[in-house]
User: Fold Metal-dependent carboxypeptidase from Gynuella sunshinyii YC6258.
Amino acid sequence: MSQNYHKLCQRFNRLFQLSHAMTFLGWDQAVMMPAGGNQPRANALAELASLRHELLTASDVGEWLDQAARESLSANEQASLREMHRRWRRSSCLPAELIHAKTLAGAKCEHAWRQQRLDNDWNGFLGNFREVVKLSREEAQLRQAASGGECDTPYDALLDLYCRGDSNQFIGQCFDRLKAELPALVQRIIEHQRSRETIQITGTFDVSQQQVLNNKLAAMLGFDFNTGRLDVSTHPFSTGVRGDQRICTRYRDDEFAQSLLATAHETGHASYESGLPEQWNGLPIGESHNMCIHESQSLLFEKQIFLSKAFNQHFTALMHEKLPQTQIWSSEALWRCYTVVEPGYIRVEADEVTYPMHVILRYEIESALINCEMEAEDIPDAWNDKMQSYLGVDTRGNYKDGCMQDIHWTDGSFGYFPSYTIGALNSVQFFHTIKQQNPDWQDRFARGDIQFVRDWLQQHIWQHGCFMEVQDMIQAATGQKTNPEFFLQHIRNRYLNEQY
Amino acid sequence: MSQNYHKLCQRFNRLFQLSHAMTFLGWDQAVMMPAGGNQPRANALAELASLRHELLTASDVGEWLDQAARESLSANEQASLREMHRRWRRSSCLPAELIHAKTLAGAKCEHAWRQQRLDNDWNGFLGNFREVVKLSREEAQLRQAASGGECDTPYDALLDLYCRGDSNQFIGQCFDRLKAELPALVQRIIEHQRSRETIQITGTFDVSQQQVLNNKLAAMLGFDFNTGRLDVSTHPFSTGVRGDQRICTRYRDDEFAQSLLATAHETGHASYESGLPEQWNGLPIGESHNMCIHESQSLLFEKQIFLSKAFNQHFTALMHEKLPQTQIWSSEALWRCYTVVEPGYIRVEADEVTYPMHVILRYEIESALINCEMEAEDIPDAWNDKMQSYLGVDTRGNYKDGCMQDIHWTDGSFGYFPSYTIGALNSVQFFHTIKQQNPDWQDRFARGDIQFVRDWLQQHIWQHGCFMEVQDMIQAATGQKTNPEFFLQHIRNRYLNEQY
Ligand SMILES: [Zn+2]
Ligand SMILES: [Zn+2]
Assistant:
């Protein structure tokens, strides 16, 4: 009898249902809630988070985990127990005082940052940020100590939260390859694009018509409106549970591409969650894998499907119908417009080619910071040097468009940034395999058929949840571990050779 | 030190935040959720309900309650402790097996009823319903036994859940007065209304314009869109927390009165919740009082404000602007149309005058049923006799528009019906006092000013939460306990004399 394992399943199901509540309360907060709900909602979410933490770290859970390890379990149950143990360790290894202190320091720093960023006030920010760094270093060291040798450095222990299975060393190797190739590639692409004509999108585009178009796009990409909604929020995001996915995009009336790219992106995230294994519902093993996988799914939908010439050709016909003003632009002209490469200050506005350099810069700084090889006051100089050398951009004195632009560090979310670019590498590698197995992919895209992509992802990624370690899953799906060469080749093909 | 009392406050705050989650998950389910969310949402709500029940009935709570009773507490804290004790007793006095059995039997009966009602299948319904009655009787007897002499009959113990403080005997006395007067009054009113001309509302009324009009109405009645939303649902309802009230109405395109009446009604419910005492936030004493008070607030907004001639005159001007087709009808013509009295089969479609007879009939049947003075199979005959004698309506053989029309009994929610009519009596009694204190009320209503009504309710009802026993609060506010004479006089004034 696997009595203790079953007690764990019951407890994790309870945690799952608390998370369900927090998921939809969070969605409501971002999409529906009137301003007066801020304080009561914050109180409710804080209490539910405490309750969830208590239920996960209660002493009975530790005992059940110990005893379940000696029970006779199937291979699936063993993998399930492994994931339960990881969730428990992550939550149990920090003293309550540190969690509390970091939450307070993070909230204070983030809150002040919203104004300090506008004021370009680095020194003001630094005053709060030093405490966030100090507490994050403590956190990282404690997490490393609790990892049982799994984490080589303190920074590895923070990566473990978002990129679990991809070590600092492995990520560093991938990024070194990109650093060696991308800066020169960017220059060649800019040179190449100078020789072609690129339209400027101008005009006023009816938002309700854009909404119709975005709904159609989501549906074309396989989003099922019986099991989800598409709404509007300040920042696009995706959340929900299997059976009820909520995605959000945002609209501008002076252009239409941003909303479409966001809808494609969030449809990728939602599709992954929808495809997770039903038999492990409510258990950690049934959850989505690390953020490097999650982001690979969204980027695959956004960059590999939506931005492909073939799909864009199909979609442009629909756009010409729903937004008649766009009929003056051919699908080829729009594609060129969507794929302009231009180094800039801001990560979230960066194109597919320069984006990794923004991430690598942040990765190099935050890993040094957490591993005590750099101090918070050294960030602006490091930022300027790297921006200059990676992208030829001068950010001296411009903190607000430089090292103060992102929210991630303000509350101590170190270790997240690499997932954007490892996700990009994974997405290209997955799509490379899909193309090899479907030589007629362009014909299918040109007809609006992307179901074969979903089928492949369902089989090789979605249905596995957290059953495998991440690089084992990638190896099983593509024949090798995450390899940056696929991404570099994709960049050359799309941006120098203007293939797909 | 009131250490145990403070532990109770912490626990009840945790319960309050779990209820916050269930409140907004419930709103989302009714208003936003796609069909695919049904199963995961039902699972989440069931688990949160179990968790809440466990946290409320845990043995530590019983000990804290015992020990807090010996602590030195302020008058407020003593009242607060009294309400905590009631919540705890209500949840602790039933064995888990009975709760579980009743939940299952109720869900089964309600589910089957949805089809059986359409099929007019009384015998099919009776098969499931007998079990619901049996378990509800057990529940009532156990609750009565646990009441420490507070409840005279088993039915009193179910009334305690919805009408706490208003006993079976007290309600029976009120209803006897109504029974003695209303049937003859109804006949006189019908006679009177036969002599006047009444318009028929016909046409097609743009729903988006109706939405604008309903938003305006809610705002005129004091609904604050910074602390709430007005949406659409299958059945109008109101929910939320202070700072974030969610009300819903529903629209038809062949008439406009239904949506407006529902919006006024739900604004009353929401206003009450918004006005609850902030200093007792999260504690039982800070919650709304029984359903006889809650319904009195909604009915006051719907029947006393919105349906008054003076307010209707003001509002019709706005309606003429937003729905230009309605300009052919004067406010007087519309008022007559809104106040037509006509006995019918269906409670939820009944007018203000005949509605109490629908409730009294149900009260007489359900109290006899729970007190074992009647059996389930006797219901149709009792129903027919009473409908014939109270309203002159023949329901023989017509179960679907007779005893099978309501959802309440299907899952064993006995004891709820009286609150509709006691609420109506209270609303008229409150408004009578408001009118006495504001002789210029009609002039104010005619200008759209209803703030003085809100101020009175805030002072005499809303701010008190559950601090006082219900009839003490009514006595303090109006000089006497719930008294049906105010309602009867209101009916004569409005429907025979066509005053206000
Ligand atoms: Zn993403
Ligand atoms: Zn109501």
Residues 3-31 of chain B form the longest helix (29 residues). Chain B has a mean pLDDT of 96. The beta strands of chain B are 228-232, 237-241, 244-249. The two ends of chain B are 56 Å apart (CA to CA).
